[in-house]
Design brief:
By secondary structure, this protein is α+β, with helices and mostly antiparallel strands. 18% of the residues lie in helices and 35% in strands. Strand 16, helix 10 and strand 17 form a beta-alpha-beta unit.
Amino acid sequence: MKRNLLSLLAVLPLFTAVCSEPIDSGDAIVIGNTTGIYLESESPSFSLRKNYVKPVRYRILDSRNTPVRSGEWPEAGRGVLTVDSLPRDFYTIRLEGSNYTGAVPFGIVPERKNAPNPDMIFAADSAQSWLAGAQLRNSRHPGPGFHLAAEAARRAGIGWVRDRLSWPGVNPTPDKIVWRQYIPSAWELGKRGVKVCTFYSSAPAWAKRKNRDLPDDLAATYRFARIAAERGRGSIEGWEFWNEEDVANTMEGAWDYAAALKAAMLGYRAGNPKAVLLHGSFSAFPVRNYSRVVMKNGAIHYFDVANFHVYAPLCDYAKRINGFHRFLAESGIPGKAIWVTENGTLAPGLAQKKSYIPNILCYSPEQENLVAEFVPKSQILMQSLGVSRNFFFVLSPYTEGARDWGLLNRDFTARPAYYAFATLVHTLGDATLQGELSAPAGVRAWLYRQPDGTQTVAFWSESELDTKPYDQFHPHPENRYERQFQLPAADGSYLVRALYGAASRVAAKQGCLKLTASRYPAYLTGMTGLVPAKPFRKPAGTGVPKTTIRKHVILRADLSSEFTVSNTRDSVDMKQDSGRVTLQIWNLSNQPETGMVTLGGARCSGLPTSPVTVAPMSCLEIPLTVTPQLDAAGINGELHFEGSFSGEKISPLIIPVHRYERKLSRFPSREFTGILEPKRWRANSSGAMEIRFDPAEKAIRFDWKFTVHGDRGDRWVYPEYILRGGETLRNAAAVVFEIKTTPSIPREAVFMAVNDWTRQHGKTTYIWYHNPGPEWETRRVSFDEILPEPEKAKMIRIGLNPLVNQQTFWIRNLRVIYHP
């Protein structure tokens, strides 16, 4: 017995140490409504998970970290804790004692009496079809959260969210459509009065005959768009075709995208005549020539709203949005309404705090505050610049590498920025922006008129978030940047709502109201008689230009291998002076179309000189041989197809020709022979990687192995080559190299220019190039528009994303071509 007791005492310290491990309050506390978002008419309630039930104290703090409630948990931990009469604000509840860490967030928002204002600018990209699915390793919420994300949108008062759809996922074969979570997720939003704008940026294999990414079967494109729009009607009231096609998600030319866009827009309109139609979002700035070529191809006649993405610092907004307005005016649609369908901030940097999910990082409280500060500032600034709808990225929880996006946490509780968003929407969602008030330097004050005729002033003090670009951004969270200013006001008491909705009152005396602005936006309500120093004038939207164009007849070109689409995808190069083109005339209507097509900018053989007839929902193919007429330098030209059917013009097909190889042959170049030395490369892959010189191929060889299941796993290999010994991209126009790979063609291939030497760090410019195959082929990566400051590159990565677990690729003869 004594020996057994001694044995027990020997292990007791270890047992005690294990039991005394800190417990995260988030693991112990269960919120009554899961998300922790409570309406003012509701009383927050909490319980303890069964394995954590014991006598314990709790404490509730408001957004200023001031204790507002505390005490013993009811029934020695077995009861439900209900908290009454909490005003609007963001709160945390935590368990007290040395064994407890962390806190559980919750908050109070007002209950909206009416449906959200359909014209409200404030919106959020929910992405819930992709991001709110079940995740088994999420111990606090392993099940799907589609309904939670939808309810979070409703409680915030948001009128529009943006979501996703997968064409291959729901329509894997021509005769099979299974909507999976996509349309039902939209219904969850629709039944709560929230409208959805959605997109897809991939096509099933059966809709692609030769293309890698875009559908080239325009009839299939039309049919799917019609069926999807019809099925989603009542919930999905906005449709985009593709996503960030100006920088990624397609290797086809801008003219090919324009043809597919036209087919999709016609399908959406047929399926839902009242839907808002948008081209796929353009995300590059300055706007690239790719986007201009899309518009020149007649895309302006098919969509209602222009679509852009912005992840720029706040100080860059005016330049970007004004640039978008100029681009639209140059394209022939001045004043076209603009939706920014993704608007996020990189200011918080990489996540710094460990999450409760293994190997996942989340934002620190200081980083959370930055996002909360950003939300109202970005929305109001976008509105002041004439943006019609601005979708914050993103509502649903989303971890991307070491970036922690989302207004909701991984357990679907709401983060501080959510309550900042809800306060903004409930305060200004029904109001009309009148303009900006005069204020001291460093203070911004925006005047809004409410439906009842009173005025609300949204105000803040500028911080480094407002004034610094990302490469100069160094946050100072301890500095509130408090600045005083004053407004004329009738004597009396006025209500101020803080960032998260907490109320306070200020008094006007002798016709003057003195206020303190901080970096965190606040809202002064109940004002009258104020006049903006800078009145807001909303750009007049044009909608779809009035035209008699026969929209259902669409021209498309199937180019032979004699044409090479540039990596900027805004032009083609030609190996010879002439090339073969199969002209496609698509009729996406239910009646025959008869007409003629002409070609400008080239000599042509094979084009009919008499009218042709195209049957309903079909395509007529005409083989041609074309010889572009180039400029005096023999570099630039354009294939310009036009036509008239049933007495009306059709939209053009315009393919710019740029003899890039001919131009580059006149430029100086330098071969980087160091690429053949294995020691010059640094392994950088999600799998095991070997680098060696292959004497038989006279090339550098990369072999790697992965242990990934499925064809969409996390396989990537991008070895890093640090520039040294006089190697530079200064004044570089392009990089040319030979490459081959085996045994399979990869999912995608990318060249990267990196402004750093550190592995996986530094500002990186991604340039997609055409997938290599099993034979040696030359790839040219042009820097035009894509890499405006090549001299900043200190390292390059060349690689690909394989589809199989074991593959090899080789590179040789890498040359940098410089501007003369």
